[in-house]
Design brief:
With 251 residues, this protein is of the alpha+beta class. The chain folds into 2 domains: 163 residues, YacF-like, CATH 1.10.3900.10; 75 residues, YacF-like domains (YacF-like). The chain is built from 8 helices and 8 strands. The chain has a 4-stranded antiparallel sheet with strand order 1-4-8-2. Strands 3, 5, 6 and 7 form a 4-stranded antiparallel sheet that branches. A hairpin with a 3-residue loop joins strand 5 and strand 6. Helix 2 runs parallel beside helix 7, helix 3 packs antiparallel against helix 4 and helix 3 crosses helix 8. The longest helix has 21 residues. It is globular, with a radius of gyration of 22 Å. 24% of the residues are buried.
């Protein structure tokens, strides 16, 4: 199944972008080729760019605290496993303390590393990290793979509290939804959203064999999905076939 996710607000959109970058970073760091490590460094810079939003850290801390309060209200409920509940609340506490202890925005400590910042200033220039532009960086790329990985882990460690917090918040958000099987009649699907409940994320799973691409739009009142096909002219065209898929709304 192919899973698509659509955020209903800017905050969740930012969380999903950061999650995407952190997953890419962990994948690239585990590899040994210098080219993979180059793109690992550029991914760190991308995280710093996304994390430069002034209110990001406060948003994440607020969401962690909100989730803790929501889950704490379930204490004493016989239908809830207290051990599992306590473990999740402990995770929330850990993430809150670690993130709150970080000074300033994501990756702020890395901005004090002149060597890294010299690379950052040139990665946006086509071919700007050639050996004649950044000989020190070119030399680093010839270090032993284990040494480069150790450097990457050290640089990424300042981003770990944010990564763990984003991962936990998105996991709790995704777990809040119940999947439902629906059909896009003639490639079109619309659903009015229940009033009095605010959804933050839509998840859509469909079989690769359908060979369709969903175009999703939505707001607090309604969700609209149109199935498209990638044609030979390299353009997307609306599908007129019935398409079954799984839809999950998360709040």
């Amino acid at each position: 199944m192919i899973l698509y996710e659509y955020p209903f607000n800017e905050r969740i959109r930012t969380y999903l972008r950061l999650e995407h970058l952190f997953l890419r970073l962990s994948t690239l760091m585990a590899r040994s080729d210098p080219l993979d490590h180059h793109f690992a460094i550029t991914t760190i810079f991308e995280v710093m760019d996304v994390g430069a939003r002034a209110d990001l850290k406060s948003d994440v801390l607020r969401d962690l605290e909100k989730q803790k309060q929501t889950l704490s209200a379930y204490r004493g409920n016989p239908a809830i496993a207290e051990g599992v509940l306590d473990a999740v609340i402990d995770q929330l506490d850990h993430c809150f303390i670690a993130l709150n202890a970080l000074p300033g925005k994501a990756g702020l400590t890395l901005t004090e590393n002149d060597w890294l910042m010299s690379i950052r200033s040139r990665v946006g220039i086509p071919g700007g990290t050639c050996e004649f532009d950044l000989p020190a960086y070119y030399s680093w790329q010839h270090h032993d793979a284990a040494a480069r990985q150790a450097d990457l882990r050290y640089w990424a460690s300042s981003l770990t509290p944010l990564a763990e917090s984003i991962h936990l918040l998105l996991k709790l958000l995704r777990d809040s939804g119940a999947p439902q099987k629906v059909i896009a009649i003639a490639g079109q699907f619309q659903q009015n959203l229940p009033q009095g409940r605010t959804f933050q994320l839509l998840r859509l799973s469909l079989a690769p064999s359908l060979n369709v691409i969903p175009e999703i739009s939505g707001n607090r009142l309604m969700v609209s999905i149109r199935m498209m096909r990638h044609a030979q002219d390299d353009r997307l065209h609306a599908s007129s076939d019935d398409c079954a898929f799984e839809l999950t709304l998360c709040s």
